[in-house]
Amino acid sequence: MDINELFGTGKAYGQNRVGSGQTGQVAGSGRDAKSARTTGASDTVTLSGNAKLFSQAVRDAQNAPEVRVERVAELKAQVESGEYQPDSHKIAEKMLLAEIDLLS
């Protein structure tokens, strides 16, 4: 099965998608699009507080150092020597707190 069109738009799948750095176009006839451009009408997007918080978290994570080399070496040495004993209660507590944060 070969899908060349999406919903009869005449465009191959993905051609009508707006991606990073691209500008969306006004849907409809060419006359409507021209009218929107000349009258200054435009679409707007408003992000919720949670969306803004998520966006900031993503930016912070991307700017954070990828690996704490000293900590990784320390943990690796503990695992190899058999000294590493994770606290299962602490791990379970952190997992539950993370779930509670997601639900609230």
Protein model, in words:
With 104 residues, the protein is mainly α. It contains four helices and no strands. It has two domains: 44 residues, no CATH class; 55 residues, no CATH class.
What is the CA-atom radius of gyration, in angstroms? 25 Å
User: How large a portion of the residues is in β-strands, by DSSP E?
Assistant: under 5%
What's the structural domain tally?
2
Structural class: mainly alpha
> Which stretches are poorly predicted, pLDDT < 50 over at least 5 residues?
19-30
Quickly describe the structure.
By secondary structure, this protein is mainly α.
List the SSEs and their pairings:
Blueprint: H1 30-39, H2 49-63, H3 69-81, H4 88-103
Q: What labels would you give this structure?
A:
52% helix, mainly alpha, 0% strand, 2 domains, 104 residues
